[in-house]
């Protein structure tokens, strides 16, 4: 394992022994990455924060069962993905409960913490915001396994081996998922980048 994963495993073993400072260190290191992954799956800032908290609660509750058999990040993102899938299933059973949370997302101040804030002029800000929205919509339109694999690869920089552990696919299947996701995004975004006109979900 890498030096970083050794450090994570050691921290988690300390959590297993009841060390709260070690748990806080892991939360500080990975909370933003977990929130980003959840937000890309369930684009609601409040929901992302709540589910991220639930992920780390689950990490703490499961500490007594933790064994150094895989990287800590594989274990962590597996928990995050499972909670996301549970929430998606819950929403499919109770769609009315999710309607209010789906309205006005762009106006929610909490969204800002998930963006890379830079200094732009008004026109560049508008273009950057629009592009981010189109990329987010394109990623959101991917099948769940493709989306999760792509995000773990590009945003969290996990290896193919680690990603295969999170999504429960073979290494070759994981590589294929990521390749198909990238090709789908290229196909979806290319007309928009050329013309500036969004074709919508039927493109």
Structural class by sheet pairing and helices? mainly alpha
Task: Count all strands and give the number.
Answer: 0
**Count of separate DSSP helical elements:** 9
CATH class placement of the largest domain: Mainly Alpha
Report, as a whole number of angstroms, the end-to-end distance: 43 Å
The number of domains is: 2
Write down the overall mean pLDDT: 77
How much strand content do the residues show?
under 5%
Query: Would you identify the regions where 5 or more consecutive residues have pLDDT less than 50?
Result: 95-120, 198-203
Key features of this structure:
single chain, 203 residues, mainly alpha, Rna Polymerase Sigma Factor, Chain: A, 2 domains, 9 helices, 0% strand, globular, disordered C terminus
């Amino acid at each position: 394992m890498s030096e970083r994963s050794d450090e994570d495993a050691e921290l988690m073993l300390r959590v297993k022994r009841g060390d709260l400072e070690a748990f806080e260190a892991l939360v500080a290191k990975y909370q933003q990455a977990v929130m980003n992954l959840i937000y890309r799956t369930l684009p609601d800032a409040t929901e992302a924060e709540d589910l991220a908290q639930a992920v780390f609660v689950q990490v703490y509750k499961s500490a007594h069962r933790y064994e150094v058999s895989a990287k800590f990040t594989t274990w962590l993102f597996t928990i995050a993905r499972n909670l996301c899938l549970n929430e998606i299933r819950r929403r499919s059973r109770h769609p009315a409960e999710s309607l209010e949370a789906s309205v006005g997302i762009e106006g929610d101040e909490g969204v800002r913490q998930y963006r890379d804030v830079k200094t732009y002029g008004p026109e560049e800000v508008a273009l950057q915001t629009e592009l981010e929205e189109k990329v987010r919509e394109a990623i959101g339109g991917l099948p769940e396994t493709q989306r999760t694999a792509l995000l773990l690869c590009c945003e969290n920089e996990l290896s193919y081996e680690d990603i295969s552990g999170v999504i429960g696919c073979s290494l070759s299947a994981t590589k294929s998922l990521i390749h198909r996701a990238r090709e789908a995004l290229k196909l979806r975004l290319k007309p928009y980048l050329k013309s500036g006109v969004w074709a919508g979900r039927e493109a």
